Automatic annotation (TrEMBL):
Protein name from the UniProt record: TetR family transcriptional regulator
Gene3D superfamilies: Tetracycline Repressor, domain 2
Record key words, sorted: DNA-binding, Transcription, Transcription regulation
Listed InterPro entries: DNA-bd_HTH_TetR-type_CS, Homeodomain-like_sf, HTH_TetR, Tet_transcr_reg_TetR-rel_C_sf, TetR_C
Organism: Elstera cyanobacteriorum
DNA-binding region: 39-58
GO molecular function term, any single one: DNA binding
Length: 203
């Protein structure tokens, strides 16, 4: 959604801006610094907007964060499901799901961290609306992993003896944990090796 460009506005009126592009820039700041350590000044600098424009579009820092969270989650979900769908079997789809997180858990992106994991740690006990979003996100991911295991059992690529609930939860922990470990500076090879080891739970 484009509110307008960053061209000069008449005197006395806040400059308007491309909200979606600005939110993408804010997501990088929140991911790297965390919610509490990010100031309004940090956001206006990163987003390239005046403080008056920011407050015109959003009530406060928390409102910016909620908008960033919702957009970030929707974008990640679209990319995640597209990669998963490339697998021909339930097992291949599960590997793609895990690789999606592995690819975000090394190099610069890995060290930057994950917005969702960060707020799960920082805000889930203090901000009820953020906690609800995190809980919903985690529940959706776990349900999706259960579906992939069941799909694999139906097509024969996953052993029928695999306990669906427990393994789905274990793989959820692995996926989210990779984003935390990635902040310590890991290689792609290390993350992919973790994926391949985890897939043995499907045998």
């Amino acid at each position: 959604m484009v509110v307008s460009t960053l061209t000069a506005a008449p005197r006395g009126r806040p400059r308007e801006f491309d909200i979606e592009a600005a939110l993408d820039k804010a997501a990088r700041v929140f991911s790297a610094r965390g919610y509490h350590a990010t100031s309004i000044t940090d956001l206006t600098r990163a987003m390239g907007v005046a403080q008056g424009s920011l407050y015109k579009a959003f009530k406060d820092k928390k409102a910016v964060f909620i908008a960033v969270f919702d957009r970030f989650k929707a974008q990640r979900r679209t990319a995640f499901e597209a990669l998963v769908a490339e697998g021909a079997t339930g097992r291949e789809q599960m590997r793609n799901a895990l690789l999606f997180y592995a690819e975000s858990s090394h190099g610069f992106e890995g060290r930057q961290g994950c917005l969702i994991i960060g707020c799960a740690v920082e805000l889930s006990t203090s901000e009820a609306d953020v906690a609800d979003r995190v809980r919903f996100s985690m529940a959706n991911d776990e349900a999706f992993l259960r579906l992939l295991i069941q799909r694999g059992q139906d097509d024969g690529s996953v052993a029928p003896s695999v306990p669906v609930e427990g393994v789905a939860r274990a793989l959820l922990c692995l996926m989210k944990g990779m984003r935390i470990v990635g902040k310590t500076g890991r290689t792609r090879e290390e993350m992919v090796a973790a994926v391949d080891a985890a897939l043995r739970m499907l045998d």
